[in-house]
Amino acid sequence: MSNIQEQINILVEVQGVELEIHQADRLVNALNNESAALDRSIAEREIRVSSEKAALDDLKKTYRDLESESKINAGMIVKSNEKLRAVKTNKEYQSILKEIDEIRKKNSGIEDRMLEQLEAIESAEAAVKAKEMELASFVQSYQEKKEAFAAKEKRERQAVESLNEKKARISANVDPSLITVMDDVKKKVRGLAVVPVQQAICMGCHMNIPAQLFNELQRFDELRFCPHCHRIIYWKERE
Which pLDDT belongs to residue 1? Predict the structure, then answer.
């Protein structure tokens, strides 16, 4: 096997390891994205529960305000009844009775609203309880998934570390200038930098290369490039 052929074989091997690293990095990023999506989901659920609780608190506050107003009105009725015992004219008596009647009517409306608030509070409490149970269930699932994502990410990061070490070992056996050439080509083509040629067809761009270049490739005497996509090319027998 010629020296250039050996060097190309090493470049292909390095490229293969780089692909594995890229795939592992993509998986790590995907795991991070899924983990972030989980975080957003649980935050949204917590906000919904907080919103439900805030709405319940508002209902309870409104009920307390109505209850306080009702007690004030009840006190006013008691005082008006006491005034009745002290009146001396029929006109004053009728006036106080009218006043008591208006307060009672007002209180009746307040009591109706209090009943409506109690129903709303009961419904809101049920909604809050359901949301809290749903959140608790989701939190348990969330924690399990987060732990699974963390474990997978750790494995993938270890794999990337191992692959980088493998790449360094393999790269040590190739001319550094060839690694530089491969990196430059990779940046330009944004994909595989080293590809085989089979039956005079570049496997990178799938275009036919000139017959003379195809014959020269089989000599493995120097690095050659596809005239169409400018990738590094090498001859490979059809399997």
Answer: 42
